[in-house]
Amino acid sequence: MTTPVTTPAPAATAPGAVRSAPRLRRVKEHRPGRPRRSKLLTVLTSLVVLYTVVPLIWLVINATKTQAGLGSSNGLWFADDFALWDNIRDTFTYGDGIFTRWLLNTLLYVVLGAGGATLLAVLGGYALAKFDFPGKRGVFATVIGAVAVPGTALAVPTFLMFSKMGLTDTPWAVVLPSLVSPFGLYLMWVFASEAIPTELLEAARMDGAGEARTFFTVALPLLAPGIVTVLLFTTVATWNNYFLPLIMLKDPDWYPLTLGLSAWNSQAETVGGEVIFNLVITGSLLTILPLVVAFLFLQKYWQSGLAAGSVKE
């Protein structure tokens, strides 16, 4: 005899459950992968974008004006005469072409200073991350303390030391202090700790590779994103360095771009000085172009370097 299957009657739905049904549907409709939009965050982001972009737009627009056009037109709009190419030509020819000398000086300081600082940061960060030695905690405390000290606080003691050594008013007075980058060393230390597996180094040593070969063939390719990140930071710091050359250099032939453009700008304040604000603005535009190009070409390495170690598998 077959027993019929009876379907139980549905239980009475509580009043509270009926009222919560629309709320459950709204929760299901919300996608966790798409964060909610915040009007306050949008407004703050827009203000930051304006704060960043408006000075650049002002610089580009005013680089197209003559000296007379700067005072007779709106700062955020073009003048009647377009003089960008004339301004660029005059910038490179004014003062017997001193702007070209300043540009080459800046490149020299960046190649020797920023390049050397990056090299030392890579070597030091790798050693601190992958080797144990007495005094490692003291080195860590020293690096952290050096990061917290602003560079302007060390400018005067550095000047007195270099003056005793007879190195002031020489390129070495700018290059040698630029070789020290506590932040770059700390960044490479942290990056090397996360990016290079210790087991990989041990495997290379077991295969007979020496420490130098292990570093150049195994560790260095893994450190490429961090190297590019440190190189960008040190390059920007050296390229925009103003206070250190100001107290170290007297000969205009050794000025970097920052100090040279400041000297051009100060001509308007001297008696009988020539007012060349149009060349100062055009020179400023030419000064930032190499940095913009460097960031555009190295952006993917820089972003990957900043994100390294943020996700643990």
From TrEMBL:
Pfam families named in the record: BPD_transp_1
Subcellular location, record wording: Cell membrane
Major site of localization recorded for this protein: membrane
Domain ABC transmembrane type-1: 103-298
Transmembrane segments: 40-61, 107-128, 140-160, 172-193, 214-239, 275-298
Keywords: Cell membrane, Membrane, Transmembrane, Transmembrane helix, Transport
Keyword Magnesium: no
Membrane topology: Multi-pass membrane protein
Family to which the UniProt record says this protein belongs: Belongs to the binding-protein-dependent transport system permease family.
Protein name per UniProt: ABC transporter permease
Lineage of source species: Bacteria, Bacillati, Actinomycetota, Actinomycetes, Kitasatosporales
